[in-house]
Amino acid sequence: MHSQVRAHPSSGRGRPAGGSEGKRAAIVLAARRLFLRDGFERVSVDAIAAEAGVSKRTIYNHYGDKERLFLDVIGETYNTMIGAVVALMDKYLTDLPDEAVEDGIIAFSREVAMFAARTPERTAVIRLLMSEAPHFPALLAMEARPRGITASIAERLARLDARGLLDVPEPQDAANHLFALTMGQVNNRSMYGAIELSEDEVTRMATSGARAFLRAYRPR
Amino acid sequence: MHSQVRAHPSSGRGRPAGGSEGKRAAIVLAARRLFLRDGFERVSVDAIAAEAGVSKRTIYNHYGDKERLFLDVIGETYNTMIGAVVALMDKYLTDLPDEAVEDGIIAFSREVAMFAARTPERTAVIRLLMSEAPHFPALLAMEARPRGITASIAERLARLDARGLLDVPEPQDAANHLFALTMGQVNNRSMYGAIELSEDEVTRMATSGARAFLRAYRPR
DNA sequence: GTCTATAAAAAGATAGAC
DNA sequence: GTCTATCTTTTTATAGAC
Questions:
Q1: Could you give all domains of chain B from N- to C-terminal order, each with its CATH number?
Q2: Which of chain A's residues have a Cβ under 8 Å away from the Cβ of B173?
Q3: Contact assignment for A143 to B184 by CB distance below 8 Å
Q4: pLDDT for B177-199, tens place per residue?
């Protein structure tokens, strides 16, 4: 059959060997790497133990079973990725000078689209979430999170509306549209990272998407 | 790779339920059902054999190994789904009377978004494609297909532009935008069907997306 | 072509020593 | 807490009869 997961035992060695906490961290790191790369079913607990440089029994002592380890690790990774996207949102779209709103939104869109296309951990964890959610309903508890992303955009758009720089009667809808026209386009076209997109493609998509957004929401 | 019904070696016509061709069809049906529901790794050849009502050995005689059966079945299912979407595109967006273009595009968007949300075979096969593509590079050969969908939209938009009913200088970009604002929104928000969306939610998303599209591409 | 029966390997989880 | 060694079940794939 196709290759089974066999990690190199050496790759996990050399870390602070001492305490229980160090081993736990090594397990999390190894599990994240392997789960994101190969999915739940294709990764064996043996492989995680080898990659982390601990025995399999130690993993079972810490987490009880493979499923719990998976949910723990993926949940944490997902939250980290959502946080990174929200941070990106907060970094841009703030304090745009009146005359640079349109350029600012275009630059923001490019940045966000490029981030979407070039952060393999983000795409991998979302692909994993989508494919495993039917088998681990607990994963669906995280569904509410992405709202935070567009909520963050909506807040900025409402501010731009208040300054009369955009015409955004429904900020939440508009935020969804900006998201769909930039990051959403990248997600769909790349199949969440399964298909590689060139930098040019991403830039063109984001730019044309942002321009369409501006035509729709520019004050008349 | 591609999966067509093989030419029957002995019989001239028909398909006796107990014959080789009948069994092959039963295998395909069972495999599609189980793979779409549970993914590649979670489905055993034993389970497929039981579901199809044939022996495991018969499956191996027909397909050689599990991977080939999977690629065959998923490839055929994916092509079928793409065809259904393109057919939907072709059904709408044609012969819109001058005064009903905007309403027609909104109706089209709702229809397409609802189809996207309510066709579990479509979402399941795309989720499967995304999650398995890294392990089966052959699946990536299908990546070119989705272009057919937006190309179909682009053609209609260009026609509406020629009639002066829309202002669409770049039909392919505009088609991508309409797709992103309707079906794309549904795909992203539902995580390709992993999260259930209410009918109201889908309708609201599609309607607001179509209206944003129209504001961006309405003639001035 | 199709079936029953059976390899051969790998998986998740546990026992018991230290 | 951690390790080595082992149990039990399930998996893919094949042998050989009909």
A1: 1-64 (1.10.10.60), 74-217 (1.10.357.10)
A2: 208, 212
A3: no
A4: 999 999 999 999 999 999 999 99
